[in-house]
Amino acid sequence: MHISDGVFRDPRVWVSACAAAGGLAGVLLARMDAEKIPRVALCTSFFFVASLVHVPIGPTSVHLLLVGLVGIVMGRLAFLPILFGLVLQALLLQHGGLTTIGINVLTMGLPAYGAYWLFGLERHFGFKAAPFVFGFLAGSAAVMLGLLLLKSVLVFADEAFVGVAWTLVIAHLPLVVVEGLITGSAGMFLKKVEPRLLEARGA
Amino acid sequence: MSEIIFIENLSYTYPDGTEALREVSLAVAEGERIGLVGPNGAGKSTLLLHLNGLLQGEGRIEVCGISVTDGRLDEVRLKVGLVFQDPDDQLFMPTVFDDVAFGPLNMDLARPEVERRVEQALSEVDMLYAVERCSHHLSFGERKRVCVATVLSMSPQVLALDEPTTNLDPRHRRQIIELLRQFELTTLVASHDLDAVLDLCDRVVLLDAGEVVADGPADGILTDRALLEAHSLELPLSRQS
Amino acid sequence: MHLPEIDKYAHLDSPLHRWDGRVKVACIAALLLAVVLAPTYPLALAGLALAVAMVALSRIPATFIFLHVRWVLLFCLFLLVVLPLTGGGELLWRLGPAGVSRAGLSKAGLISLRALAAVLLIFPMMGTARFHVTLKALRRLRVPSVVVQILAFSYRYIFVLFDELHRMLSAARARGHGRARRLRMFRNVGSMLGMLLVRSLNRTTRVYQAMLSRGFRGEMKTLDDFHLRPTDLVKGVLVAGAAVLLFTAGALA
Q1: Each residue of C17-44: pLDDT tens digit?
Q2: ipTM score here?
Q3: Domains (ranges, CATH) in chain B?
Q4: Quick one: which of A77, A141, C41, C133 could link to C129 by a disulfide (CB 3.0–4.6 Å)?
Q5: Can you give the residue ranges of every domain in chain A?
Q6: Do C36 and A5 touch (CB under 8 A)?
Q7: Is C216 on the interface with B (CB under 8 A)?
């Protein structure tokens, strides 16, 4: 899901994505209290460290993204930890690229809001496994949505990327399920242990 | 006025409804070293957070004659140096230098003065050798000592420490106790380590369920087996047998 | 899992290590942009050559570099396989129903050159000074203070959370969860990450209290030690000049 530097022939693609991402981050940061700085920072560290976890799938292993989980706990601010996490991944791990930060953060950050909304529906259902079910939906929908966004961007940027885009989507399908399972279990855990965190997220 | 801290009828209830402090009154004279002891959830840490106005309950609280209320928090925070239990909460900057300089820089001091204070604070806790290091490369004991330096660099009048000896091996525990004994500052130590309190403090305040249940000389309270056991504590090891 | 120590070799000595952080970051970033924009093979190769030269100059060991660029190499390898097979147009070779497209192969090759050159430039830019010094350089380059603050805090707590996660994983392994069945494993990993998240977010209150109690009033202040010397400017002119040349050549091509 991390696009490297140098992929796009037409710079307008990544320049406009960076501008859009920068604009959204700018608005969020300008409206944010200084009090929220440690929260965004710790969530960034969490996003970064969780992405170092590899889980085996078949013969290979994938690393986790957890944008859905970030969305669930951060609400309105979810875009920021994902942005800063990607910046740190590019600078510290050489994972992804610098000029493609805009594209990467839009395709992963926007679905986090979808996950937030989806998990919010959980409140209306009282059954015991509801946090797991909606966590699963939020986690897998976030990855799926991200893949579809990425596919559209790639195909929009260059017709020749059609095959690449579909291969990426198919290769990541197992991750859709894994992220769902993990986000669901994490959602269940949060609901049981620290429901306060889920209520405070919109603030 | 010789009372450096004056607390009268302080009560605090957490937003979730837990009553953490009930009508606590306490007067601390300049230069005193006081141990705050009590079982988990007795309100020790909550009380320390009030000294810096990080929590604000009902009642009256004054530090160095300044009332701890919204308008004067900046002044109060210069007077009380608060050392948190987990050094990773207190050391949030990338390097030791940046962490120790954080307070002085917020006091708008000039660069040479900031550097002088950092150097002095770190040498007082024997950590000057680590000034350029990153906090995550230090041992737990070293991080604890740097935490003390981060508040010493602000030249406080009162030192308030939350569990300064927890999770330390015997040698580092001894080091930090010796370190704190050297200071002539007014000191409040909230701790479960009653031996350390007995070593350090002249006076002990026993809290339970947010109330002061005993207040007096350390070797009076900390040798009263019945009183301690009534509040889920044990005699210090050095006073057992 | 390994710790992200991009600045592991910041203690070495090289012309890049001695270069003023502000000029270094700005000029190498400009070169990185020019490399990413290179439209032809000769220019992309020139960019890669420059990047390799700068990495060599930085004296960062090749094994370290290789370990760090494996994500990008994997990505390039993926493109080099998939793009030629799906590129269409004129075919170089036929492989049963599919074939290797000339345009696809050419495009994948060009992208790989640019991606590799760009990622190699990160090492002279970020690996030749301690990360916190680079952050201070970014602040001096007018990156907003709140952005630098968040990056600095996140960097600090990556190490704390990494240790916490490591302890949790070891504890889980000690209880025998390492051999649990697949579904059970996902559930355990989920709870573990949930636990890590709870601890991290609960820590935020205490960190903020620690900041306030040391007089924080909303603006982070730090000291830095940047001094511009003539050699810094000479290096800057060289690298920025290369960037401008590469960019102009690309615009004309």
Answers
A1: 999 999 999 999 999 999 999 999 999 9
A2: 0.94
A3: 3-85+157-239 (3.40.50.300)
A4: C133
A5: 11-199
A6: yes
A7: yes
